[in-house]
Amino acid sequence: MPMNVLKQKLYRTQLNNQGNTMRNLALLSRWQWLDERRMAAMQRQRLSDLLIHAYHYVPFYRQRLEEAGVCDGFSVNLDRFGRLALLDKADIRDRLDEMKSADLEERRWYFNTSGGSTGDPVRFIQDKEYADWTAAVKLLDDSWSGRRMGDRQIRLWGSERDLLVGRESLKTYVGRWVKNEIHLNAFRMTETQMDRYLRTIDDFKPVQILAYADSIDQLAQHAERTGTPAHRPRAIMTSAGTLFRPMRERIERTFGCPVFDRYGSREVGDIACECDHHEGLHVSVPTHYVEILGPGGRPAAPGETGEIVVTLLTNYAMPIIRYRIGDLGAWAEGKCPCGRSYPLIGQLAGRVTDTFVTRSGTRVHGEYFTHLFYFQDWVKQFQVIQEDYARIRVVWVPGDRADGRAKPGERAISDIAGKIRLVMGGDCQVIFEERDDIPPSPSGKFRYTLSRVAEAHFAGENAGT
Ligand SMILES: [Zn+2]
Q1: Ligand 1 centre from 261 Cα, in Å?
Q2: How many helices (H) and strands (E) are present in the chain, helices listed first?
Q3: Which end of the chain is less packed: N or C, by CB atoms within 10 Å?
Q4: If you measure from the C-alpha of residue 442 to the centroid of ligand 1, how many angstroms do you get, rounded to a whole number?
């Protein structure tokens, strides 16, 4: 029996023995083709079940559900769901005890943490049932990208835990061998490491590469710069961080394969993923109820950018209901030709804190600022930070030149400052600061733009419900 077939058999056996992942995958594979009416009915049922559980077992939600008139313990009125208070990261941080399900001890539960953009990790509780659904969603998403279970995968990934522990257990190694995975640390991306990563990819010849969007882009840039030909996988799946159009184009050009963007987080797992039509990201309806809210908390129209709010349908150990995940996005205006009736997020517009906001409330997408640095060869790395409504700091690392460090011309600097003032207001102070390097955020994802004003500003806007 060839080694790969053996590994696939072992992997399936392992999953079958461990829980419901394979059963869930079979359900998801069937449900994705349900018609719109049956899909909606199934989701309403799953949402109602969660709300009734939350009412009876979670003190934190009982009061909220009663106040909004959504649930009285026996019946659910989903027409009023939009009145239910939104859940903030601060709620999870400060009121974890009240958010635990009273039947926790009967569940196989564990703590998980997320880095958070502000650097303060948030702890939350998940259970085995959630983990099995999450694993199944990942396998389904993989199948959309053309990766079957057990097909060779390289992960260009990192996490705080990997950095802290540094060494993995034998069990982890065996697990990866069975699953046919190789892990490359996205946190150590020096020139030498990147040469090594490209060689590993070439030797292992993965069917799929799973990567942080900006890490695989960095690797693509490195391959282009050094003229290193890269192995062509069947697909690259990106996650964690916004995949801007020029990044997608560069990755596809360098690796000669399509990019599938996936959207998720530590708190709620994978929410949405592109199918092979790349018309947007299909929301995983059986596991997540997603809302996109415009100003005042009303549902955003298709094409209108708003705040993404997620209800996780599978984690009863600590229900997450109407969670302000911190990202902006817009529903697609059309339908996907693939025939799945999972709704499409047409565009992910970055973190709430990627978007800058003026005192009068005008929003400026972070991408406006990143565009200002295209084709500026004196810059190797940059970050634009909105410190206050009218103060912006541009931190930059000089590009390498044969004759030493590159220097920007006066014109380049004043041109960028002028374009920033154009959108942020003539009185906006723009400060340039040269540095040797810019560290990634605590979660390991690099942030090109960061507003210290946006979160509080948008919280104020959405409180108007
Ligand atoms: Zn589709």
Answers
A1: 12
A2: 15, 21
A3: N
A4: 33
Model pLDDT for residues 84-126, shown as the tens digit of each residue? 999 988 888 889 999 999 999 999 999 887 754 444 567 899 9
Per DSSP, what are the bridge partners of residue 289? 311
Domain ranges of the chain: 3-349, 356-462
The Cα-based distances of 170 to 156, 162, 167, 174 in angstroms read: 20, 14, 9, 6
Pick the CATH number of 356-462 from 3.30.300, 2.60.40, 2.40.128, 3.50.50: 3.30.300
**pTM for this entry:** 0.79
> Smallest Cα–Cα separation from 82: which of 322, 303, 331, 329?
322
Architecture of domain 3-349: 3-Layer(aba) Sandwich (3.40)
Looking only at Cα atoms, what is the longest distance across the chain?
A: 74
Instruction: Kindly list the protein residues that place their beta carbon closer than 5 angstroms to ligand 1, a single-atom ion.
Output: 275, 277, 336, 338
Distance 182 CA to ligand 1 centre (A): 29
- What amino acid occupies position 209? I
